[in-house]
């Protein structure tokens, strides 16, 4: 799978005026990061996609389940090999570290999910 490369600031990456592309495992990692960055109902193409809805904020187990589901919904995911999360009440972020077996190999990532 080929995708347009997105920087950590959310902007499209250009290389000499041309779009920079990512594929396979890099595309998977980018896709997971994007999925974990928006709330349920925010994406116009699929209002079921996203992490949490307002009534779920207080239940970390539901939030973790939704995060795992979003990871597995990314094209190429086979299984979640490792998943850890820590909630920071001060920042209202759930810091997630994960390792996913994909059709291209193993992808690791970490993301602060605002809840």
Report on the architecture of this protein.
- By secondary structure, this protein is of the alpha+beta class.
- It has one domain: Nuclear Transport Factor 2, Chain: A, CATH 3.10.450.
- Helix content is 23%, strand content 37%.
- It is built from two helices and seven strands.
- The chain has a three-stranded antiparallel sheet with strand order 5-6-7.
- A hairpin with a 4-residue loop joins strand 5 and strand 6.
- The longest helix has 14 residues.
- The protein is globular and about 45 Å long.
- The termini are far apart.
- The model has no long low-confidence stretch (mean pLDDT 88).
> How large is the count of helical segments?
2
The largest beta-sheet arranges its strands as: 5-6-7
Count of folded domains: 1
CATH architecture: Roll
- State the name of the first-level CATH class: Alpha Beta
- Note the run of SSEs as H and E: EEEEHHEEE
Binned strand content: 35-45%
Largest sheet, strands/sense/barrel: 3 strands, antiparallel
Radius of gyration: 15 Å
**Could you say what the CATH topology is called?**
Nuclear Transport Factor 2, Chain: A
- Helical percent range? 10-25%
Q: Which regions contain 5 or more consecutive residues with pLDDT less than 50? A: none
Shape type: globular
Summarize model confidence as the mean pLDDT: 88
The total of beta strands comes to 7
């Amino acid at each position: 799978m080929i995708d347009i490369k997105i920087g950590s600031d959310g902007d499209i990456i250009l290389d000499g005026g041309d779009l920079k592309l990512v594929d396979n495992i890099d595309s998977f990692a980018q896709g997971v990061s994007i999925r974990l960055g928006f709330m349920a109902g925010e994406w116009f193409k699929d209002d079921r996609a996203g992490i949490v809805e307002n009534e779920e904020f207080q239940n970390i187990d539901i939030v973790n389940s939704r995060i795992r589901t979003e990871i597995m919904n990314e094209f190429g995911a086979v299984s979640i090999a490792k998943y850890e999360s820590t909630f920071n009440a001060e920042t209202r972020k759930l810091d997630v570290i994960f390792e996913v077996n994909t059709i291209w190999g193993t992808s690791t990532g970490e993301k602060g999910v605002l809840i």
